[in-house]
Design brief:
By secondary structure, the chain is mostly beta strands. It has one helix spanning about 1-20, and strands at about 40-45, 50-55, 60-65, 70-75, 80-85, 85-90, 100-105, 110-115, 125-130, 140-145, 155, 160-165. It has one domain (about 40-165). The chain is flat, with a radius of gyration of 30 Å.
Length: about 170
């Protein structure tokens, strides 16, 4: 009797596995392409520089450096200065009005402490603007630095990619 019970249980288990749903696989393929551009270099030796002096570190502040070098501030508890960044083409000129210029920053870039590496403070730069010089050889870049409340005193560093597409 015990043999028949065990055989019946094994048969029931095997039958339930047969009725289980087998997953289906949907598949397809897509094209993959790469457009490789060989660029001429730009000399971007003058970096965008912000030098804020914060009188009240308990609130958020901003400093904006325009392409002409003028600095403006979010409130009276921040002062300082700044220098716009610039890039000069090694060959050729920029198009009229800077057409084809790309500042590759998405919504902004982050700057991280370079002296006190254990600091958790991070500042961001956004709202990039640019201007092409009259001789169309130099591109000047300005932006806004966002300083959150409680930011540590330090030198904050980051990079900004600037591109120019000649068509």
């Amino acid at each position: 009797m015990r043999k028949y019970f065990l055989l019946g249980a094994v048969a029931l288990l095997a039958a339930s596995n047969v009725n289980a749903q087998v997953p289906t696989l949907n598949a397809g393929n897509m094209e993959v392409a790469a457009q490789i551009l060989i660029g001429e270099s730009m000399d971007c030796s003058q970096g965008l520089m912000f030098v804020p002096i914060i009188l009240d570190s308990g609130t958020n502040h901003t400093i904006t450096v325009a392409t002409d070098g003028k600095a403006s501030f979010s409130d009276s508890n921040i002062l300082g200065s700044g220098t716009p960044g610039s890039c000069t083409l090694t060959e050729g000129t920029f198009a009229e009005g800077g057409q084809g210029v790309t500042i590759i920053a998405g919504d902004g870039i982050f700057l991280y402490p370079s002296i006190n590496k254990e600091s958790s403070s991070v500042v961001s730069v956004e709202n990039f603007v640019f201007q092409v010089s009259d001789d169309r050889k130099t591109l000047t870049v300005g932006a806004t630095l966002n300083i959150p409340a409680g930011t540590d005193s330090d030198v904050y560093m980051g990079t900004l990619d600037v591109g120019y597409m000649v068509e």
